[in-house]
Each structure stands twice: as structure tokens, then as C-alpha cells.
Design brief:
- The protein has 118 residues and is mainly alpha-helical.
- It contains seven helices and two strands; from the N terminus they run ααααββααα.
- β1 and β2 form a beta hairpin.
- The N and C termini lie far apart (42 Å).
- One of its GO terms (molecular function) is DNA binding.
- Keywords: DNA-binding, Transcription, Transcription regulation.
- It comes from Sinomicrobium pectinilyticum.
- This is Transcriptional regulator.
């Protein structure tokens, strides 16, 4: 098992939040589930820029952190649905703040990105 050479400061709220939300698609996955997209195949369609493998990996991490729940409905084929836990609901204010900041700063960030590509 991998052991860090420099220990993480798990007393720092920013570090803990980063551990939970760190991952390119986790905020998008949380937002999709909040909007009612609950099945893995629906998430793959909603976040088409990400590979299904990456989405599944990040779903597993969110599940392990207690941000989402997974319900398996019996039958053939099995039906899997994800939902936000109470802790997952409490992180929505951060997702909303990220969305607001992105919308407010879109033009600036896109301009910087364009200049970087040139």
C-alpha cells in the first residue's frame, strides 16, 4: 500500500474538502445526481467528455467518502441507482459556489485559455 512521505494535514478543512471533491468529474457527478440523473448509463451520457471508466472510479470514491449512496434493485438486468446522502447534500453549497464563480469569471478564464493556446 502506498504511504505518503509527507503526511497530509487532515486537520485542514480545505485539504479534506479537496480529498472528497478532488477529481476532474466529481463536482459534475454530484450535480448530475442532484438534478435527478441517478443511473450509471445516464451519468455517462450526461458527462460525455469523461470515460465511463473514470466516472465509475469517481462514483466509487464518492461512495467510499459517504457522499452518495448506491441502491441495487434486484431483477434482470440489475438496476443501480445513486443518490446523495445527507453529507452529499451538505456539499451542494460548494458545488453551487463553484458554478457561480465559473459563470461570473467565464469570459476572463476563456480569454486566458485562448492566449495560452496561441
Amino acid at each position: 500500500m502506498y504511504q505518503r512521505k509527507i503526511p497530509e494535514d487532515l486537520e485542514c478543512g480545505i485539504t479534506l474538502t479537496g480529498k472528497v471533491l478532488g477529481g476532474k468529474w466529481k463536482p459534475c457527478i454530484i450535480d448530475s445526481i442532484r438534478r435527478g440523473i441517478r443511473r450509471p448509463s445516464e451519468l455517462h451520457k450526461d458527462i460525455s467528455e469523461a470515460s465511463p471508466r473514470v466516472i465509475n472510479m469517481q462514483l466509487r470514491e464518492l461512495l467510499n467518502h459517504g457522499i452518495i449512496d448506491k441502491k441495487i434493485h434486484p431483477g434482470l438486468p440489475l438496476k443501480v441507482e445513486y443518490s446523495l446522502t445527507a453529507v452529499g447534500e451538505s456539499i451542494l453549497c460548494i458545488i453551487d459556489a463553484m458554478d457561480k464563480w465559473g459563470a461570473e469569471n467565464r469570459d476572463h478564464i476563456l480569454q486566458i485559455m485562448e492566449e495560452t493556446v496561441k
